């Protein structure tokens, strides 16, 4: 007899999600906030994130932008695209000992595309892309936070449901307007963090898509898990932190998809509970997915390791002083203090600085230092949150706190000094991703307060006040990133003990020609850091130009004593010694500079000047030839060769060198002028005239150009034209040597001709 009973059909994953979502408390129920449709919520987030940083769109290239963009040959068309995969972020070969090993080829590729479409180094396009990226990321955050705060659930049609629309909007707004993000958005180099974050989020959303039931009824999609791994790899090729998304995906799978109770699991593992065999961690699918993530992550890291090489990046003590401390205790204490400062920047992002190295944060060397309180406060809060995340009986609370801590801590691990030394003390840009965790914890804390508060509107107004304050702070900070002068000066009040800040202010002033003010800041930089060789070098250069040669020599000698391979300081020391007429010492300094930097065209140029002063003409010509071989556009070296050959009567050779130089640098008016002089002496008047006129067109206010053209016309017999250009030359420079005498000779000759004609 056939039974009339039907077998109960096993519930699919979507039904399980639906039931669990109904059982769990809704975070939005306690949050007193605006409820907007998803489309409008994203529009609001996009608009506000744009307003925060819009005033940075026409800023300059500042700080690290110079090295990563302007001086990076990988952006130029002549560099093969394939080289990007073997160079670091700054354009150096990864195999080089001086490479920082920052492998971000996809970020550099976007810079190159910017450069191509802009037709050169125009910063507007670079800034606009950064702003668009941050707006896009902020919009994606609405979806990400809806999953992290509300859970993952799909409708019958396979559409993901937003179970926490108010909470996700608040968290996304907190992220969009956080002032600590200014460095990433307003600083073009921050493109690496923005691209990394974009693909980081896409990887997470792709992983979530893997659990949407497909037509075959499978509970997860291997395809979307693999897509998530690939997107994680792309994130890492934009910046190293991107790899951490694979770990976060695994945490999300365990906590949200499989509802694992970590404390219960740990207890079973410790006590070898036999029921572990039936535990959720061994369910079909979870181990397989985690294995895919681990294999993908290991493969990505291996490939990167093979490309990068085995050598660690080379950093100096001034970059990260705690990592060079001999005592393990001192290192541990200071690392934890740095963590507390990062946490404080998330909580109170008012004191922001472009650079936190070089004495900005003095080392803690004993437990009597009052700053130990910051460490205690950090760990008190962390331990409290971890205990709640593990021990709370509320599964909803456990999940949100664990995810918040995971997104706060895991993306920060590459910058933590735990696995390898990093080249900074604090870097605001590395908090871009960890701020996701902060926004989760803030929003959850706000929901708890709202639940307890009797006057919820007051609490909502307070949060609105925080958001508005952050918007204004972002706008102010973005304006400071618009130019190096504003950026560097803004750091003086935040990090007055940072020698690098004073150095950069001084350098900016020196570039603008304000040497007196620059000297003051360079001296302060050297006072704060007596081993700051770059400050000594720049200060020595200014003193050299002001003819304060003895102090310049002392500074430069000290710089090369501290850093014997500092090629630029050796060259500048040679220039000072040459000016002091200590020629043998100068020659030795130049050759030492070349020893430490083989390809050093400027040093060969200065060595040539030394040999010219000593009448060692062949050696001078050889040195200048080396300079032009290393740097074909070295105009000064070409000019000096032409002038020396001209002065020594080698007109044919001077002409040949001049023509060779103009082929390489066709628009250089100084080369036109020098070759025109040679051609005039060779009686090639017509060609000489053409070059003189071309040089004058390029630089019409050069008195010597008009004066020498007048001499040419004088020799050629075109006396009226000679008179005209003598007069122009004297008008531009009444004290021009020889011009007044030649002009007087011409006037007498013209008077004689007039008398004869009369």
Radius of gyration: 34 Å
Structural class: mainly alpha
Q: State the share of residues found in helices, binned by percent.
A: 55-70%
Stretches where pLDDT is under 50 for at least 5 consecutive residues are: 1-23
Largest sheet: none
- The average pLDDT is 88
Shape: elongated
| Number of contiguous helices | 33
Report how far apart the termini are.
Answer: 147 Å
β-strand number: 0
In percent, how much strand structure appears in the residues? under 5%
Main location: endoplasmic reticulum
Family: Belongs to the TMTC family.
EC number: 2.4.1.109
Domain DUF1736: 311-383
Provide an overview of this structure:
It is a multi-pass membrane protein. Residues 311-383 form the DUF1736 domain. Keywords: Endoplasmic reticulum, Membrane, Repeat, TPR repeat, Transferase, Transmembrane, Transmembrane helix. With 758 residues, this protein is an all-alpha fold. It has a domain at 36-308. It is built from 33 helices and no strands. The chain has helices at 13-23, 38-53, 65-70, 105-118, 123-150, 165-176, 182-186, 191-209, 222-238, 244-257, 262-270, 286-308, 328-347, 372-391, 395-409, 435-452, 456-480, 484-494, 499-511, 515-528, 533-545, 549-562, 567-579, 583-596, 601-613, 617-630, 635-647, 651-664, 669-681, 685-698, 703-716, 719-732, 739-757. The termini are far apart.
